[in-house]
Every structure is written in structure tokens, then in C-alpha cells.
Specification:
Length: about 140
């Protein structure tokens, strides 16, 4: 990740003044990073929700969407009760990063291919038990 940041800010060439050598840095891809946590399945009744730690590109995509949403909130003055909407919105985007697939009665729903509004609707109807397990998984990932 550090080499990717360096490439973005300073370019892909590094010149060592002491040895008068020039090195070319290879840009890493998301596939270069090992997953710290294996994908996980949350089971509830006839549902299975497959979750996984998002790759950097997916994480960045959802963070940018959230930033755009927050900028809209910033433009208008919020009432006290609207601040909970901001918190809920953050949680919603965080959940979208981790959910990969949902299975029910043998049918597979590729969650990642759905439009954002449908992803949000699905998260809204998840039972609290599933949401709690998803929150625990995310907390475990972030704590390590």
C-alpha cells in the first residue's frame, strides 16, 4: 500500500543518490494484498449472508459515495434528530462494503451486482440478529 501511495504522489521511479541507481516500482493491485480474514457466513433461518473484508478499491468506492452523501447533508442545516440519519447512513455504507452474496432456499443473489438503492433496501430489512453479527464481524476486522 505504501508503494502505491508513493507511485501516486511521486511517480514510479526512485533514484538512489548514494549508488546512482534508478529503480522502477511496480504498482500493486488489490490482488497483491492477502486477506487477513476469511470470508464468513451469517446464517439465519433459511438465509445465508456471505460477508468478506472488502478490497481497497471497493472500500474506497463506498467511502467516496459516503463522502458525497455527507457533503449534501453539510449544505443544509441539520436538526438534532437528523444526526441519527448520518450515523445510520455511515453504518449502511459500511455494511455494503462487506456483504458479498445472499442465499435463500437455494437461490443466490449476487449482492455486489445490485444498484445502491436495492442494496440499501436489503440492509433495511435484515433482521436485527443478522445486523448484530455483521457489526461484530466488522468490529473484529477493524480491531485487528
Amino acid at each position: 500500500m505504501l508503494s502505491k501511495l508513493r507511485i501516486l504522489t511521486l511517480g514510479d521511479k526512485y533514484k538512489d543518490i548514494q549508488t546512482d541507481s534508478t529503480f522502477t516500482l511496480v504498482e500493486p493491485t488489490d490482488e497483491d494484498f492477502d486477506r487477513t480474514f476469511e470470508p464468513h457466513i451469517i446464517s439465519f433461518k433459511q438465509f445465508e449472508i456471505f460477508i468478506s473484508v472488502p478490497k481497497l478499491a471497493k472500500d474506497t468506492y463506498y467511502n467516496n459515495l459516503l463522502i458525497n452523501e455527507l457533503q449534501q447533508f453539510k449544505k443544509k442545516k441539520l436538526k438534532d434528530e437528523e444526526y441519527t440519519k448520518v450515523s445510520d447512513m455511515y453504518d449502511m455504507y459500511e455494511f455494503m462494503k462487506y456483504i458479498v452474496e445472499i442465499r435463500c432456499d437455494g437461490k443466490v443473489l449476487n449482492y455486489e451486482s445490485l444498484p445502491i438503492n436495492k442494496k440499501m433496501k436489503l440492509i433495511d430489512i435484515l433482521p436485527q440478529k443478522v445486523v448484530s453479527q455483521l457489526e461484530n464481524y466488522i468490529k473484529k476486522v477493524k480491531d485487528n
